[in-house]
Amino acid sequence: MTRREILICSGTGCLSAGAEEIEDKLMDELWKHELEDKYPVTRAIKRTGCMGPCNLGPMIIIRPEDTFYGNLEPSDVETIVEEHLLKDRVVRNLLIEDDGHKVEEFQKLDFIQGQKKIVMRNSGDIDPSSLEDYLENDGYMAARKAITDMEREEIIEEIKESGLRGRGGAGFPTGLKWEFTAREDEDEKYVVCNGDEGDPGAFMDRSVLEGDPHSIIEGMMIAGYAVGANKGYIYVRAEYPLAIRNLQKAIRDAESEGYLGENLFNTQFDFNVELRVGAGAFVCGEETALLSSIEGKQGRPKYRPPYPAQSGLWDQPTVINNVETFANIPIIIEKGSEWFDDIGTEGSSGTKVFAVAGDVGNTGLVEAEMGTTIEEMIDIAGGVAGGKDFKAVQIGGPAGGTIPEEHIDLPIDYDSLEEAGTIMGSGGFIVLDEDTCMVDVAKFFLDFTQEESCGKCPPCRLGTKRMLDILDKITKGEGESEDLETLEELAETVQNTSFCGLGQASPNPVLSTLRFFREEYEAHVNEKECPTGTCKALVEAFYIDEEACVTCGKCTEVCPVDAISSGDESYSIDPDTCISCGECAQVCPVEAISEGDNE
Amino acid sequence: MSTVKFTVDGEKISAEKGETVMSACKKHGIDIPKLCQHDAMENVMACRVCIVEVNGEQIQPACGLKVEEDLEIKTETDEIKKYRRMNLELIYRSENHYCMFCESDGDCELQDLMWENGIDYFEHPRLFPDRPIDSSHEHIVIDNNRCIRCGRCVRACEEVVGNQTLAFGGRGLENEIVADADVPLKESTCVSCGMCLQVCPTGAIFNKHSMFKGIKDECDLTESTCLRCSVGCETEIYTRTGHLVEIEGAESEMESGGQLCEMGRFEPLVDRTEKIDDVIYKENETEKEMSLAKGLEKAAEVLDEGDKISAMASGNLTNEVLDSFSEAMRTHGALFDVVGAKRHRFEKEVKRRINMIEGHFIDDITEVMKADHILLYDTSVRDTHPVLASYIRRAAMNGTRLITIDAYEDRFWEHSDISISVESPKTQLTRLINQVVREGKGSIEDLTRVSSILGGLRVHPRDVMQVVKHLEESTYDIIILGSEIIDRWSIRHIFELAKLEGSYLISLNQASNQYIRSLETEGVYEEPDVAYVLAGDEDDQEDMKKLIENADFSIVQASKRSELTEKADLVIPSLTMFEREGTSVNINGEEKEVERVMEPKGELKSEREFFEELAEKR
Fold first, then answer.
1. Exposed (0-12), middle (13-18) or buried (19+): which is A366, by Cβ within 10 Å?
2. How does DSSP classify residue A308?
3. Are the CB atoms for B161 and B195 separated by under 8 Å?
4. Exposed, middle or buried, A43 (CB in 10 Å: 0-12/13-18/19+)?
5. Which residues in chain B touch residue A499, judged by CB atoms under 8 angstroms apart?
6. Under CATH, which architecture does the B279-340+515-587+598-616 domain have?
7. What digits encode the pLDDT tens for the residues A90-108?
8. In-domain check, residue A120
9. CB contacts, 8 Å: A461 with chain B
10. Which residues of chain A lie closer than 8 angstroms to B172, CB-CB?
11. Alpha-carbon span B566 to A419, nearest angstrom
């Protein structure tokens, strides 16, 4: 019998899908079959961070064969143990199907094959709570190299040449940022990791923090050495308990094993990291607000300049980078700037992790090389779900924009996205199919930013509210002809006069949908029609054709609001009660139900 | 300071490097509209009204943007005007800005801006906020429905008053002004200085006693000096048809930020005690009213008859009144004293005995904000000299070490680094500190020795040594002696300590007019035949009460009825503080003008003339 290792994904997605139950069951089965010697729980079962294909959870990988079992039920575990572990036979009916054929190996999944894992190199592979595991995967080698073998300027030069740009959204060159801080002649400097990931649906940073916490500490340590800082802060939102737990353990372990503290790698360099937990305000993802929050003040943005690089935390020079940016650092130091620069496009090196969601086959985390087209991304994610047509993709979260079908071959990099009216943002990637109402999409994001405005400046606090009011009016069929113009004027004011990035970017979802889908807005306003039937107030009630009705009663069973009453000859729908959901029309065996007045 | 040249709307102007565009423009007479910016506070660039175009591309707030060589600023492009207008329209529709139903109608910076931008109708549908109004406080009303979240009140409370009571609560549309952890203002840590309502640009925070009494433009404005304590804040007093409407601090006074305290801003507005207009003579339990001339004659007659005459004046009068009163009293052979002067006489004596030179005394109380250590002996300054207290709090917030010693509660407990509570006799502690300092650092380390000296005092020896250690370390320390300390030994020990440590001193006094330092005063007869008390607006001075109780015949000259006038045999009207004019000397030793705010209503027009006449009636 082969000695195997069983990796069980313990990212937040899989945990909520029941990964712990699978793990318990697995341990029970190993005990039952007296396999505890061959599969000692501490070594053979490994809880990893997020593996990526979240909609396949709970999932396990059996090594060395790399066999992948997903969407597991506790009852499947017995079969896997009996068949795979005891008899060396792959359980074929538990394999995942890609395009109609069963895939045995994790690496052969379409979802994985299209990806290039740099940031997520360890996530899903190592046990995030084990420093040992990290060290076995060359952990802290880059820091050792940087601190013992490299000059500070050399490191900054290396990062500059790698072409790494900030993964928090705006894409500022990381090396340049470090250089600004390194140049400041101050004794106290800080390195801050922005882990206040707040875009709806985004969980890239969460997965890295949960799945590979030491890589962030290592990246920060290298930054600290390069700029002359001895203290780092990781700011994580309170809604990420697992990330907090894993980070706390990672910091404790690194401290006790001498990877944090004084005289690191027997040099004069000291570095310590502290964890700060945010209280759930979206605006704290804005760097100056985040720094205020670390200082114990209210999380409100501050005016720049001075930029944090010159005057940040407690008015000292501060390097503040996103989680994903720090995760890239160790591997750049390890493999060199040339290697990194060769990946991606000319202006955007490396990869970007996206949280792919919406109407696709496989939702989850996708790390793709910069320059991958939108179409390729959708293919990686298993195409548009349910065989529907692609309509658009929303990139960059509430600060981003929507890209329509005609730009499906757009390469994803900082500059192309900006040209198309959106931003890389933190990596939201929401695929929208033909049934999506774009006004509704814009409303969704604006509702979010309006709710999350800190309230400091009028354009953001009040302008977004006014815009939301207009969108609400439009989706209710009360739109007036001048509304779109007012909407644009408001958007322009909010964009140009808001205090911080949150406000300035908040009109983007509205502006980009107006740019590419204006006719949809016009249909709502002028025709009082929602082309996709999403805006319920604009959809007419359904009616039943009396001639065709066979009084089978299926429609009454599905109607969620009891709008359908029975009759001898035919059933009928009360138009005042009907919410036009269309469920009845779908179940009617004789197609007697349709939308609109019975005229 | 180097200068830079830049262009504003085509005009080349020069400014100091590091200055903001707004401040540079202001100096050149270019007013950029604003709502949140205020000269006494840090700029937060929140209101987005002062936006300007920079180098033809960017839009930046003029209050945040620093001047740079060759910067090209445009303040009134079509785009800027459009955005500014849109933001104002959004503010207009989002809160309750129905001007005709607002206390600040006519006194409102927001209203002025709306008019300037031609916004006299609602472009957008209104939001009708419905937040509870906080009217719990005795003087101040906070109506968040009219608040534009400029944050001036929050910054004033923290940066100017050093108090941190007001803050922003909630976020987005729910963002509002709250006191402490959102408690009613009355129950909060508010010190009732009213700075918040003075800086509020709209009608969101206003004065209960001044509301609906008139627009400032229609009032008469008198600039004067507050005589409630020796800080002597500059005031702007608004009156209408001879009635008091509102008192504000002069915002040109940058260090104080335009502060006043509850005594200066609110108390005169709520004072409803009965004014004295006529002379009242009490004979055989009956009150007899008489003319001022008759009163003067009666007073002269009584003074002539008396053998032992004691005269006492309030320390809150003007130099001229004090001079003429003391002159008149001396002519009649009286012993003359002023409330608070005793402390000065003690100080003079101590200074002579320990051979102390004047250099130890600070002639600018804002210096406390520059000290690295403050030793505050008697924390009553929080109530007696509230504006000085604000400087102490501001210093402590900015890192100055604050050591407090008090027999009662430490009224700076939130800010003090070392707080020592002593029981009487307080003098032992200062004696001890002196001894430790005197005997050198060796004894500082000797805990048992210090403990033995401490004797019955409930003070931890470690605290005493900490105090000494701080004083030894400091390069600029100021000792503030509160006005409640009146025993000679305390004064002596503190002055000695200052001398030993090279500390600077601020000695506070009950009297607001420090002219009494140069005025010749002496102790009075404790049981006189005749007591003449010039109380002015005072009503609760223990010394005065004691004096008339022990006198055979007492004359009280006061502006309003009080316990003093009830007990007096002869009551003569005096002017009120707003009717009086003259000069007064503040704690810094500066002579300040006290202006007449209202014409005297009674028969008495000038106290000085009255006393000159009284002197002649010898």
1. buried
2. T
3. yes
4. exposed
5. 45-46, 48
6. 3-Layer(aba) Sandwich (3.40)
7. 999 999 998 889 999 999 9
8. no
9. 149, 172-173, 175
10. 450-455, 461
11. 86
3-class DSSP assignment, residue B74: strand
* Whether A451 and B172 lie within 8 Å, measured CB to CB: yes
CA angle B98, B100, B104 (to 5 degrees): 90
Q: Is A303 on the interface with B (CB under 8 A)?
A: yes
Task: Specify the CATH number of the domain B356-507.
Answer: 3.40.228.10
Which of the four pLDDT bands, split at 50, 70 and 90, describes residue B254?
low
Q: Would you say residue A248 lies in a domain?
A: yes
Q: What is the CATH number of the domain that holds A476?
A: 1.20.1440.230
Which of A455, A493, A497 lies closest to B172 in CB terms? A455
User: Phi-psi bin for B128: left (phi > 0), alpha (psi -120 to 50), beta?
Assistant: left
B269 is written with which tokens? Answer: 């507005």
Percent of chain A with pLDDT over 70: 99
Amino acid letter at B78?
D
Q: Is B124 on the interface with A (CB under 8 A)?
A: yes
Q: With CA atoms as reference, report the closest residue to A152 among A110, A188, A181.
A: A181
Q: What is the CATH number of domain B129-270?
A: 3.30.70.20
The position carrying tokens 């005749």 is B530
Tell whether A473 lies on the interface with B, counting CB pairs under 8 A.
no
CA–CA separation, B263 and B235 (whole Å) = 12
Lowest pLDDT segment from A134-148, A572-586, B12-26, B139-153 = A572-586
Examine the domain organization and report whether A473 and A509 are in the same domain: yes
Q: How far apart are CA A311 and CA A309, in angstroms?
A: 6
Does residue A373 sit in the same domain as residue A509? no
Instruction: Tell me whether A495 touches chain B (CB under 8 Å).
Output: no
Considering the four listed CATH numbers 3.60.20.10, 3.40.50.150, 3.30.360.10, 3.10.20.740, the one that applies to the domain covering B3-76 is 3.10.20.740
Q: In the numeric block, which tokens belong to residue A237?
A: 């939102």
Identify the residue among A453, A461, A492 best suited for mutation to test binding to B, counting B beta carbons within 10 A and taking the highest: A461
Can you give the residue ranges of every domain in chain B? Answer: 3-76, 129-270, 279-340+515-587+598-616, 356-507
**Same domain for A151 and A239:** yes
Could you tell me the CATH number of the domain that includes residue A429?
Answer: 3.10.20.600
Residues A198 and A319 in one domain: yes
A271 and A324 together in one domain: yes
CB B149 to CB A462 under 8 A?
no
**Considering its fold, how many domains does chain A have in total?**
5
Q: Is the bond preceding A58 in cis, omega lying within 30 degrees of 0? A: yes
* Contact (Cβ atoms closer than 8 angstroms) between residue A251 and residue A217: yes
- Domain span at residue A327 reads 131-341
ipTM topping 0.95: no
A222 with A243, same domain: the answer is: yes
Q: Does residue A599 register a pLDDT over 80?
A: no
Residues A488, A406 within the same domain: no
Whether residue A281 lies within 8 A of chain B, CB to CB, comes out as yes
Chosen domain end from A341, A375, A391? A341
CB proximity list for A270: less than 8 A, separation 6 or greater: A230, A261, A262, A263, A264
Q: What is the pLDDT of residues B134-157, one digit of tens each?
A: 999 999 999 999 999 999 999 999
Inter-residue contact A363 to A109 (CB < 8 Å): no
> Which residues on chain A are in Cβ contact (under 8 Å) with B94?
458, 462, 465
Give all strands (DSSP E) within A209-300, no chain letters: 231-237, 272-278
Structure tokens belonging to residue A30: 């190993």
A506 and chain B in contact, CB less than 8 A: no
- Residue in the block written with tokens 């030894």: B472
List, as one string, the DSSP characters of B372-432: SEEEEE-TTHHHHSHHHHHHHHHHHHTT-EEEEEESS--TTTTT-SEEEE--S-THHHHHH
